[in-house]
Design goal:
Layout (H helix, E strand, L loop, with lengths): L1 H21 L3 E2 L10 H8 L12 H13 L4 E5 L2 H12 L5 E5 L3 H4 L4 H6 L2 E5 L11 H4 L11 E7 L12 H13 L4 E5 L2 H8 L3 H7 L2 E5 L10 E5 L1 H13 L8 H13 L4 H15 L5 E4 L6 E6 L5 H10 L2 E2 L1 E2 L4 E5 L6 H13 L3
Bound molecules: pyridoxal-5'-phosphate (PLP).
Pyridoxal-5'-phosphate (PLP) binds next to α4.
Length: 364
């Protein structure tokens, strides 16, 4: 009896081990989960290094000058994260007691730990607009009259493109020009949270310098769709970047042989931009299937690499997420009754096929 049990137990544990080894998780939670490719690791190993606080790391310097040139900006600063580049930019553009205009669902407001209040001591004027994008016509009423002593001085407008909460939505160039000219007219700096700017550029078929002309500062994530392990780049005028560099140091973001990280970013810029349309294609293929499933009420329009699913039964969100994970599909809760699936560098056609065949058969 005992022996039988033990054997049975052993068998079970063997099966389980084999199963977990065989089961590959297709991880749609975020495009931040990508691991560096062997070629990227090779570029890291070969990178020439120096002390970047002395501005002597050749790889960091090359990354900064490459991205600045690409976007037609004077200078760039390599930072630890997109939160850091956004927060530094906002600190440079504003003074305590000022006000920042941004979309009510923007990352700088929702997902940076209250950083604007904490780091810049500014208030925010939250603006609405379709799928995470500021409606240019709503900007006017958000601008405070600088002569009215009651009101905080409006000091910055910030735009997010692609807009994460909008399900990876992309601004039209027309809207960006409208926002740009509003800012010009009112002497307001304009910041772009371009965590996924390359996804937007692909959709609009635009060269980066077009966006460089529209924005005073741009934050770009290397660790999202580009697939680098760490890092973001902040772009602006030389004067702006000099100020940003001081603030980065104060925040503890002055890194030494940071070329180890910058090398991965350079590699990503050279090798992973051209493949971004594949992510968009796969996101569309996934969405086409998802919208046919009985437990899905609606799939939000897919413009880039993000698929947001509205569930038939909102109360089932966590149960569905857990069940999918048991079947090898990881996704992330995205507000009440919604799940988000993001395609990226580490999801190839076979990963997508695996996910699609599971999704076709799984029932709740
Ligand atoms: C990811 C992201 C950021 C930066 O996030 P970090 O994790 O700090 O690099 C900023 N804005 C948007 C829209 C993002 O999706």
């Amino acid at each position: 009896m005992e022996a039988k049990k033990a054997v049975k137990g052993m068998n079970q544990s063997i099966t389980f081990t084999i199963k977990t080894k065989l089961m590959r998780i297709v991880d749609f939670r975020s495009d931040t989960v990508t691991l560096p490719t062997p070629a990227m690791l090779q570029s890291i190993v070969q990178a020439p290094l120096g002390d970047d606080v002395f501005q002597e790391d050749p790889t960091v310097n090359l990354l900064e000058s490459t991205v600045a040139k690409q976007f037609g900006k004077e200078a760039a600063l390599f930072c630890a994260s997109g939160t850091q580049t956004n927060q530094i930019a906002i600190m440079v553009h504003t003074t305590p007691g000022g006000e920042v205009i941004c979309h009510e669902e923007s990352h700088i407001y929702k997902y940076e730990g209250g950083g604007i209040a904490r780091n810049s001591q500014c208030s925010m004027k939250l603006i609405q607009g379709n799928r995470g994008r500021i409606a240019p016509s709503l900007l006017g009423p958000c601008l405070n009259n600088p002569k009215d002593l009651h009101l905080p001085l409006t000091q910055l407008v910030s735009v997010e493109d692609t807009a994460n909460r909008g399900g990876g939505s992309v601004y039209t160039l027309e809207d960006l020009y409208a926002i740009h000219s509003f800012c010009q007219k009112n002497h307001l700096p304009l910041h772009l949270d371009g965590a996924r700017i390359f996804n937007a550029l692909v959709v609009n078929g635009m060269q980066p310098h077009v966006y460089g002309e529209l924005f005073d500062s741009i934050s770009i994530c290397l660790s999202k769709g580009l697939g680098a392990p760490v890092g973001s780049v902040l772009l602006g005028t030389r004067e702006f970047i000099n100020k940003a560099r001081r603030i980065r140091k104060v925040l503890g973001g002055g890194m030494r042989q940071a070329g180890i990280l910058a090398a991965a970013g350079l590699y990503a810029l050279e090798n992973h931009v051209e493949r971004i349309p594949l992510d968009h294609l796969r996101a569309n293929q996934l969405a086409n299937l998802l919208e046919k499933l009985p437990w899905v009420r609606e799939v939000l329009p897919v413009e880039t690499n993000i698929v947001v699913v509205v569930l038939q039964d909102a109360s089932q969100r966590d149960a569905i997420q857990n069940e999918l994970l048991k079947h090898g599909i990881a996704c992330i809760a995205f507000g009440p009754g919604m799940l988000r699936f993001v395609t990226h560098l580490n999801i190839d056609d076979s990963g997508l096929e695996q996910a699609i065949s599971v999704l076709k058969n799984v029932t709740f």
